[in-house]
């Protein structure tokens, strides 16, 4: 994913890149928790557990935004039609369920004095930060939190209309 980020991605000196870790995510309720657990384990492996509180919060927000806004509404399961109060018998055998292909990708990159988390989704919709914060609203604070808890963030459209990457950077020393 690093080669797709370009500017306004923070400059990364590839000579100082000491680790990357990538996780593919599907549109499932447990995906945000999986992203946080992956981030915690990766930071522990990189001996940076002290950064988990802020990085884990930002990862949660970026992944939530990608799943909610980058993929659109979650498809609802099809309910078979009913006849006389009983489920209808399918006319043909039901095909096996295919394993969902990851649509969102989280990548963590460790560089000298910096940690970058980047979340890629297939949407061409631009990230929007709420200008007016409503204290009673249940959503709309995600990018504001990203701005507050990271040392910088931004986004870049991918070539060929394949979506976008939203990133956040953290100083590690």
Describe this structure in words.
With 173 residues, this protein is of the alpha+beta class. The protein contains four helices and seven strands; from the N terminus they run H-E-H-H-E-E-E-E-H-E-E. The strands form two sheets. The protein has a five-stranded antiparallel beta sheet with strand order 1-4-5-7-6, covered by helices on one side.
Question: Which structural class should the secondary elements be placed in?
Answer: alpha+beta
Described by strand count, sense and barrel closure, the largest sheet is: 5 strands, antiparallel
User: N-to-C terminal Cα separation, in Å?
Assistant: 25 Å
Write down the secondary-structure element order: HEHHEEEEHEE
Average pLDDT number: 79
Shape: globular
- The main sheet orders its strands as 1-4-5-7-6
Beta content? 15-25%
Tally the beta strands.
7
Count of helical segments?
Answer: 4
List low-confidence stretches.
2-7
Helix content: 25-40%
Backbone CA Rg: 19 Å
